[in-house]
């Protein structure tokens, strides 16, 4: 028996309506579940971590352009991953493994480039020696690595005070912890420091050690283009140096003085007077010249054609 056409249409309409209602309920249920999931995700703590901005091959030296920031769930972030504020700890490192874009960059992935040791600034056959300095010997803190200084030593000899040049043209390698290789600006290198490190030969280092133990050392700043050594020294007390010392009572002229072959000139009154007059004429009371011409301690650099201390590498000597 065939159903009436009206009843058949009503049944199809009812089925379509039920299907629509079911689809609407399913869509609503899906949207509600998705909203709850998003709310749950929003409650998960998130952190920002440094990741690779691009695919980075092995051996890449990391710079600022290689870093990016990515938000990760705190529970999923590696314990040694770095926040953006600490990206400088990775900057300058060299990658030990290739990374893909978005991969966290960890300290274990990098190796720091090692700074050349300070001993690399010392020439072959040379020695670095550190001595304490005060405000005077540091030229009021204006002494810088690369300067040249003269060292004078004052000591007692045969009951007379002598001040003589010990080393001249000594290269200053460091003032305190500051060196030219440290990258500090001149303003940062200058300032307060209690020691200076000098470039010396082994023989000069021995002289400097002995002078520190038996005398007083004073440093004078030398012009970098001054290549003339000074052999002059002084002896005697301050009154003698200033020419105000009273002369010793002369001998009785009526008495004939016997001259012996083993007596120095100063033991003969007439010869001593002549020497005193000569000293007065040339204005060099107490000033005398060393029996040798001292060599500049930095002469080895000029002989090797090195003008800048930074170039004093052992392979070039």
TrEMBL record:
<dbReference type="InterPro" id="IPR013974">
    <property type="entry name" value="SAF"/>
</dbReference>
<protein>
    <submittedName>
        <fullName>Flp pilus assembly protein CpaB</fullName>
    </submittedName>
</protein>
<dbReference type="Pfam" id="PF08666">
    <property type="entry name" value="SAF"/>
</dbReference>
<dbReference type="InterPro" id="IPR031571">
    <property type="entry name" value="RcpC_dom"/>
</dbReference>
<feature type="domain" description="SAF">
    <location>
        <begin position="47"/>
        <end position="111"/>
    </location>
</feature>
<dbReference type="InterPro" id="IPR017592">
    <property type="entry name" value="Pilus_assmbl_Flp-typ_CpaB"/>
</dbReference>
<dbReference type="Pfam" id="PF16976">
    <property type="entry name" value="RcpC"/>
</dbReference>
